[in-house]
Amino acid sequence: TSSAKRRSMGPSWYTRLIRATYSPSTAPSAPSDTLPGHQTDEALVLAVRVLPPAQESPSMNLIFTCDWHISDDTPEDLTYGLQIIRDACTLALAHKCSHIVVAGDFFHYKHKLSPRLLVAVQETLRWVRRQGVGVIVIPGNHDRPDSNDPNWTPLLLFKQDCILVNESRILVEPDCVIAMVPWLAPDKYREEVKAVAHQCLGY
Hints:
single chain; about 200 residues; alpha/beta; three-stranded antiparallel sheet; 5 helices; 7 strands
């Protein structure tokens, strides 16, 4: 998608507030290569509700987003990308959400990251942190320049200003289990998703 087209699509393109609940009753009965929410070119967030609705008392509210594709091809692209971050923070504050989750493709380019872009993003993430909102970033394929070295990502530069999920992580809360799986090369990614799903769903 061109940068101009992404901008023209407006706020609905890049974020929406959801209460992520993946009901075990609708879960597949056996493992598969494609799980709900799973795309081989993105990061995965899988939320499993473990309490019935009558007992729900949310322990945390999160905003789940993905595919920000921030770039500075033009000054307008950079302004738009930084506004995505600010708008997500404003939405989080309005809905009393503690964290924003970015599930893959924070940046648009794997290699073309200028100092101007990196400094501007860092300053904006620091502004979000000062508002009391945390940003959880799960690398997608656009955020990992070298598929042979999955630990390397330019997002490491922002470790002081966001929570970087560079390895699979399962967060257990009283009312849900949230699994976060960063992108890997497709063959490794499928196996990782299966392993994490097994831990969460028991198959």
